[in-house]
Protein backbone atom coordinates (compact mmCIF):
# COMPACT_ATOMS: atom_id res chain seq x y z
CA UNK A 1 0.00 0.00 0.00
CA UNK A 2 2.80 2.40 0.89
CA UNK A 3 4.70 1.62 -2.31
CA UNK A 4 1.56 2.32 -4.35
CA UNK A 5 1.08 5.67 -2.59
CA UNK A 6 4.70 6.64 -3.22
CA UNK A 7 4.45 5.64 -6.87
CA UNK A 8 1.23 7.63 -7.30
CA UNK A 9 2.77 10.67 -5.61
CA UNK A 10 5.85 10.47 -7.85
CA UNK A 11 3.68 10.12 -10.98
CA UNK A 12 1.49 13.07 -9.96
CA UNK A 13 4.52 15.23 -9.21
CA UNK A 14 6.06 14.39 -12.59
CA UNK A 15 2.78 15.13 -14.39
CA UNK A 16 2.48 18.46 -12.58
CA UNK A 17 6.07 19.40 -13.50
CA UNK A 18 5.41 18.45 -17.13
CA UNK A 19 2.26 20.60 -17.31
CA UNK A 20 4.03 23.57 -15.71
CA UNK A 21 6.93 23.19 -18.16
CA UNK A 22 4.61 23.06 -21.21
CA UNK A 23 2.28 25.83 -19.99
CA UNK A 24 4.32 28.20 -17.80
CA UNK A 25 2.48 30.68 -15.66
CA UNK A 26 2.33 34.30 -16.72
CA UNK A 27 4.73 36.49 -14.75
CA UNK A 28 2.99 38.57 -12.14
CA UNK A 29 3.66 42.05 -10.83
CA UNK A 30 6.35 40.85 -8.42
CA UNK A 31 8.17 39.07 -11.25
CA UNK A 32 8.00 42.19 -13.42
CA UNK A 33 9.39 44.36 -10.65
CA UNK A 34 12.12 41.81 -10.02
CA UNK A 35 13.07 41.86 -13.70
CA UNK A 36 13.02 45.67 -13.67
CA UNK A 37 15.38 45.81 -10.67
CA UNK A 38 17.63 42.99 -11.84
CA UNK A 39 20.20 45.26 -13.47
CA UNK A 40 20.46 47.42 -10.37
CA UNK A 41 20.76 44.36 -8.13
CA UNK A 42 23.51 42.91 -10.31
CA UNK A 43 25.39 46.20 -10.26
CA UNK A 44 25.07 46.35 -6.47
CA UNK A 45 26.31 42.78 -6.18
CA UNK A 46 29.33 43.53 -8.38
CA UNK A 47 30.08 46.63 -6.32
CA UNK A 48 29.79 44.62 -3.12
CA UNK A 49 32.14 41.96 -4.45
CA UNK A 50 34.68 44.61 -5.39
CA UNK A 51 34.36 46.19 -1.95
CA UNK A 52 34.70 42.83 -0.19
CA UNK A 53 37.72 40.92 -1.52
CA UNK A 54 36.96 38.04 0.84
CA UNK A 55 33.62 37.31 -0.79
CA UNK A 56 33.14 33.61 -1.44
CA UNK A 57 33.84 32.53 -5.02
CA UNK A 58 32.07 29.52 -6.49
CA UNK A 59 32.51 27.72 -9.75
CA UNK A 60 31.62 24.63 -11.73
CA UNK A 61 28.37 22.78 -11.18
CA UNK A 62 27.61 24.65 -7.97
CA UNK A 63 27.84 28.01 -9.75
CA UNK A 64 25.58 26.92 -12.61
CA UNK A 65 22.97 25.45 -10.28
CA UNK A 66 23.12 28.53 -8.04
CA UNK A 67 22.65 30.97 -10.93
CA UNK A 68 19.72 28.95 -12.28
CA UNK A 69 18.04 28.88 -8.87
CA UNK A 70 18.69 32.59 -8.36
CA UNK A 71 17.00 33.40 -11.70
CA UNK A 72 14.09 31.14 -10.75
CA UNK A 73 13.68 32.93 -7.40
CA UNK A 74 13.83 36.33 -9.10
CA UNK A 75 11.23 35.30 -11.67
CA UNK A 76 8.88 34.31 -8.84
CA UNK A 77 9.57 37.49 -6.87
CA UNK A 78 11.09 35.68 -3.88
CA UNK A 79 13.50 38.26 -2.48
CA UNK A 80 14.63 36.52 0.75
CA UNK A 81 15.93 39.73 2.24
CA UNK A 82 16.89 38.25 5.60
CA UNK A 83 18.88 35.46 3.92
CA UNK A 84 20.64 37.94 1.65
CA UNK A 85 21.48 40.15 4.63
CA UNK A 86 22.93 37.21 6.56
CA UNK A 87 24.97 36.14 3.54
CA UNK A 88 26.24 39.68 2.98
CA UNK A 89 27.26 39.84 6.64
CA UNK A 90 29.14 36.55 6.34
CA UNK A 91 30.54 37.53 2.92
CA UNK A 92 29.07 34.48 1.21
CA UNK A 93 27.49 34.07 -2.18
CA UNK A 94 23.71 33.93 -2.55
CA UNK A 95 24.03 31.58 -5.53
CA UNK A 96 26.31 29.27 -3.52
CA UNK A 97 23.79 29.15 -0.69
CA UNK A 98 20.93 28.24 -3.04
CA UNK A 99 23.07 25.59 -4.73
CA UNK A 100 23.90 24.06 -1.34
CA UNK A 101 20.21 23.94 -0.38
CA UNK A 102 19.45 22.11 -3.63
CA UNK A 103 22.45 19.79 -3.97
CA UNK A 104 22.42 18.41 -0.42
CA UNK A 105 18.81 17.11 -0.57
CA UNK A 106 19.42 15.87 -4.11
CA UNK A 107 22.42 13.88 -2.90
CA UNK A 108 20.32 12.42 -0.09
CA UNK A 109 17.69 11.27 -2.60
CA UNK A 110 20.31 9.86 -4.96
CA UNK A 111 21.63 7.61 -2.20
CA UNK A 112 18.26 5.82 -1.84
CA UNK A 113 19.40 2.89 -4.09
CA UNK A 114 22.52 2.59 -1.95
CA UNK A 115 20.31 2.43 1.14
CA UNK A 116 18.21 -0.27 -0.51
CA UNK A 117 21.29 -2.35 -1.21
CA UNK A 118 22.61 -1.84 2.32
CA UNK A 119 19.32 -2.91 3.92
CA UNK A 120 19.26 -5.94 1.62
CA UNK A 121 22.76 -6.90 2.79
CA UNK A 122 21.64 -6.59 6.39
CA UNK A 123 18.82 -8.99 5.70
CA UNK A 124 16.07 -6.44 6.26
CA UNK A 125 14.44 -7.25 2.93
CA UNK A 126 14.42 -5.52 -0.41
CA UNK A 127 11.45 -3.24 0.29
CA UNK A 128 11.63 0.36 -0.86
CA UNK A 129 9.48 1.70 1.95
CA UNK A 130 12.06 2.22 4.70
CA UNK A 131 14.88 3.49 2.44
CA UNK A 132 12.47 5.86 0.66
CA UNK A 133 11.20 7.38 3.89
CA UNK A 134 14.74 7.58 5.26
CA UNK A 135 15.90 9.35 2.09
CA UNK A 136 12.99 11.81 2.28
CA UNK A 137 13.76 12.59 5.93
CA UNK A 138 17.44 13.10 5.16
CA UNK A 139 16.57 15.34 2.22
CA UNK A 140 14.28 17.47 4.41
CA UNK A 141 16.97 17.72 7.09
CA UNK A 142 19.66 18.73 4.58
CA UNK A 143 17.27 21.31 3.08
CA UNK A 144 16.77 23.01 6.46
CA UNK A 145 20.34 22.60 7.73
CA UNK A 146 21.92 25.46 5.67
CA UNK A 147 19.30 27.91 6.95
CA UNK A 148 19.89 26.91 10.57
CA UNK A 149 23.66 27.22 10.23
CA UNK A 150 23.33 30.55 8.42
CA UNK A 151 21.08 32.06 11.09
CA UNK A 152 23.29 30.89 13.94
CA UNK A 153 26.52 32.19 12.40
CA UNK A 154 24.91 35.46 11.28
CA UNK A 155 23.44 36.12 14.73
CA UNK A 156 26.85 35.71 16.36
CA UNK A 157 28.57 37.89 13.77
CA UNK A 158 25.84 40.54 13.99
CA UNK A 159 26.42 40.79 17.75
CA UNK A 160 30.11 41.33 17.10
CA UNK A 161 29.25 43.96 14.51
CA UNK A 162 27.04 45.84 16.98
CA UNK A 163 29.88 45.83 19.49
CA UNK A 164 32.20 47.38 16.89
CA UNK A 165 29.56 49.97 15.99
CA UNK A 166 29.42 51.06 19.64
CA UNK A 167 33.20 51.53 19.71
CA UNK A 168 33.00 53.33 16.36
CA UNK A 169 30.48 55.80 17.78
CA UNK A 170 32.80 56.57 20.70
CA UNK A 171 35.69 57.19 18.31
CA UNK A 172 33.56 59.49 16.15
CA UNK A 173 32.46 61.43 19.22
CA UNK A 174 36.08 61.85 20.30
CA UNK A 175 37.05 63.14 16.86
CA UNK A 176 34.16 65.60 16.88
CA UNK A 177 35.29 66.84 20.28
CA UNK A 178 38.71 67.47 18.72
CA UNK A 179 37.19 69.97 16.27
CA UNK A 180 36.79 67.83 13.15
CA UNK A 181 33.79 67.86 10.91
CA UNK A 182 31.37 64.95 10.64
CA UNK A 183 32.79 63.39 7.41
CA UNK A 184 36.38 63.76 8.61
CA UNK A 185 35.46 62.35 12.02
CA UNK A 186 33.80 59.31 10.44
CA UNK A 187 36.77 58.56 8.18
CA UNK A 188 39.29 59.09 10.97
CA UNK A 189 37.36 56.79 13.33
CA UNK A 190 37.09 54.12 10.65
CA UNK A 191 40.89 54.07 10.26
CA UNK A 192 41.29 52.73 13.82
CA UNK A 193 41.30 48.94 14.07
CA UNK A 194 41.75 46.14 11.56
CA UNK A 195 38.82 43.90 12.43
CA UNK A 196 36.48 42.66 9.72
CA UNK A 197 33.62 44.90 10.90
CA UNK A 198 35.73 48.06 10.95
CA UNK A 199 37.07 47.14 7.50
CA UNK A 200 33.48 46.90 6.19
CA UNK A 201 32.70 50.34 7.61
CA UNK A 202 35.91 51.82 6.20
CA UNK A 203 35.26 50.35 2.74
CA UNK A 204 31.69 51.66 2.75
CA UNK A 205 32.90 55.19 3.58
CA UNK A 206 35.63 54.99 0.93
CA UNK A 207 33.15 53.87 -1.73
CA UNK A 208 30.83 56.72 -0.74
CA UNK A 209 33.63 59.21 -1.34
CA UNK A 210 34.27 57.73 -4.81
CA UNK A 211 30.59 57.62 -5.84
CA UNK A 212 29.83 61.11 -4.50
CA UNK A 213 27.48 60.03 -1.70
CA UNK A 214 27.50 61.29 1.86
CA UNK A 215 29.14 59.12 4.52
CA UNK A 216 25.89 58.70 6.44
CA UNK A 217 24.15 57.46 3.30
CA UNK A 218 26.91 54.87 2.92
CA UNK A 219 26.45 53.78 6.53
CA UNK A 220 22.71 53.48 6.01
CA UNK A 221 23.20 51.38 2.89
CA UNK A 222 25.63 49.14 4.76
CA UNK A 223 23.08 48.79 7.58
CA UNK A 224 20.43 47.76 5.07
CA UNK A 225 22.82 45.30 3.43
CA UNK A 226 23.82 43.48 6.63
CA UNK A 227 20.55 44.17 8.53
CA UNK A 228 22.12 46.07 11.44
CA UNK A 229 19.56 48.51 12.84
CA UNK A 230 22.19 50.57 14.68
CA UNK A 231 23.81 51.65 11.41
CA UNK A 232 20.45 52.62 9.93
CA UNK A 233 19.60 54.66 13.01
CA UNK A 234 23.03 56.30 12.90
CA UNK A 235 22.50 57.23 9.27
CA UNK A 236 19.10 58.76 10.02
CA UNK A 237 20.46 60.71 12.98
CA UNK A 238 23.44 62.07 11.01
CA UNK A 239 21.14 63.05 8.16
CA UNK A 240 19.05 65.15 10.53
CA UNK A 241 21.74 66.83 12.61
CA UNK A 242 24.88 66.72 10.46
CA UNK A 243 25.08 70.52 10.34
CA UNK A 244 25.37 70.93 14.13
CA UNK A 245 28.56 69.36 15.49
CA UNK A 246 27.63 69.67 19.17
CA UNK A 247 24.30 67.93 18.75
CA UNK A 248 25.93 65.20 16.70
CA UNK A 249 28.52 64.61 19.40
CA UNK A 250 25.90 64.42 22.16
CA UNK A 251 23.69 62.13 20.10
CA UNK A 252 26.55 59.76 19.28
CA UNK A 253 27.68 59.61 22.89
CA UNK A 254 24.15 58.80 24.04
CA UNK A 255 23.77 56.11 21.39
CA UNK A 256 27.09 54.51 22.33
CA UNK A 257 26.11 54.50 26.01
CA UNK A 258 22.73 52.92 25.25
CA UNK A 259 24.36 50.24 23.08
CA UNK A 260 26.83 49.39 25.84
CA UNK A 261 24.01 49.21 28.38
CA UNK A 262 21.97 46.89 26.17
CA UNK A 263 24.99 44.70 25.45
CA UNK A 264 25.72 44.48 29.18
CA UNK A 265 22.12 43.47 29.92
CA UNK A 266 22.28 40.78 27.20
CA UNK A 267 25.51 39.43 28.68
CA UNK A 268 23.97 39.36 32.14
CA UNK A 269 20.95 37.50 30.77
CA UNK A 270 23.18 34.91 29.07
CA UNK A 271 25.19 34.51 32.26
CA UNK A 272 21.97 33.89 34.20
CA UNK A 273 20.85 31.27 31.67
CA UNK A 274 24.19 29.49 31.88
CA UNK A 275 24.04 29.57 35.68
CA UNK A 276 20.62 27.95 35.58
CA UNK A 277 21.85 25.28 33.16
CA UNK A 278 24.82 24.57 35.42
CA UNK A 279 22.47 24.25 38.39
CA UNK A 280 20.32 21.73 36.50
CA UNK A 281 23.46 19.79 35.53
CA UNK A 282 24.58 19.71 39.17
CA UNK A 283 21.18 18.45 40.30
CA UNK A 284 21.25 15.69 37.69
CA UNK A 285 24.76 14.75 38.78
CA UNK A 286 23.67 14.54 42.43
CA UNK A 287 20.65 12.45 41.48
CA UNK A 288 22.84 10.05 39.50
CA UNK A 289 25.26 9.77 42.43
CA UNK A 290 22.40 8.96 44.80
CA UNK A 291 21.13 6.29 42.40
CA UNK A 292 24.66 4.89 42.21
CA UNK A 293 24.82 4.68 46.03
CA UNK A 294 21.37 3.22 46.52
CA UNK A 295 21.32 0.76 43.62
CA UNK A 296 23.20 -2.10 45.39
CA UNK A 297 20.97 -1.84 48.43
CA UNK A 298 17.83 -1.85 46.31
CA UNK A 299 19.03 -4.87 44.33
CA UNK A 300 19.82 -6.75 47.56
CA UNK A 301 16.38 -5.95 48.98
CA UNK A 302 14.61 -7.04 45.82
CA UNK A 303 16.59 -10.29 45.53
CA UNK A 304 16.07 -11.30 49.12
From TrEMBL:
What GO cellular component entries does it have? plasma membrane
Cited InterPro entries: T2SS_GspF_dom
Where does the sequence pass through the membrane?
Answer: 6-23, 102-124, 130-150, 279-303
Location of the protein in the cell: Cell membrane
Q: Where is each Type II secretion system protein GspF domain found?
A: 168-294
Which Pfam families did the record assign? T2SSF
Q: How does it sit in the membrane?
A: Multi-pass membrane protein
Which UniProt keyword terms apply here? Cell membrane, Membrane, Transmembrane, Transmembrane helix
- According to UniProt, the name of this protein is Flp pilus assembly protein TadB
Q: Could you tell me which species this protein originates from?
A: Thermomonospora echinospora
